[in-house]
Amino acid sequence: MIKFENPNGYIQITNNYFAKLVGQTAQSCFGVTGMVNSNPVQSIRSLIKNKVNIDTSNQGVSVKSVNGALVIDLHIAVSYGVNIGTIADSITNKVRYTVESVTDLKVSKVNVYIDEIN
Prior knowledge:
Elements: E1 2-6, E2 9-13, H1 15-27, E3 32-35, H2 40-52, E4 61-66, E5 69-78, H3 84-103, E6 107-117
Parallel strand pairs: 5-6
Antiparallel strand pairs: 1-2, 3-5, 4-5
């Protein structure tokens, strides 16, 4: 849960909301074929959700608040033959812009990990 204060009071936003927002934004970028589980807990959760047909757009996403700014880790799969550096830059810029415009919170870092090439 991420909490911050504005002139009108306190706002609390769940990590699940950020994970879905970031996951959907990253998947909309050119060359990204999907999100990849970043740890064993997400792998087990993903297996269970796939059996029940629940949205798994938040897999491979980790959002932390450090000193009032967000640090986002993404684990993705990309298409074969695309420029990985360009894709990573595109994802970083789009995720930063989307999160900052939707939530008005500062994103200090977006780490993109390419875990699979399809």
